[in-house]
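Give me structure tokens for this 127-residue protein.
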Amino acid sequence: MRYPNLFKPLSLNGGRVTLKNRLLMGSMHTGLEEVVVNGKLEDMAEYFAQRAKGGVGLAVTGGIAPNNAGRVKYFAAKLSTDKEVEKHRIVADAVHREGGKIAMQILHTGRYGYHHWAVAPSPLRAP
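Here you go.
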């Protein structure tokens, strides 16, 4: 086999986290980050759970803002309150049930934000 370690477990952080393999699904914006039904991200949870079930060891979510200023647009995904943590917990739990791990891409859009909260080092807004 050309990559003999690809399907072997990988221990991280002194053994505190172990990935079932070295397959990583990179971040991509699916639009599911904003699809909330009854206060839950059920579609996003199912999407990432299916990837874990299919063999992905670590999946990375699409960008989630750390605060209002970092959002892409009004009502875009954000994770900065206890309520939002609970909303995202369903996603992590679904992935963990399938034996995978998940990491959140923290996204701050800066001058690319399409809202009045946007802050950036440059006063020039992106086109």
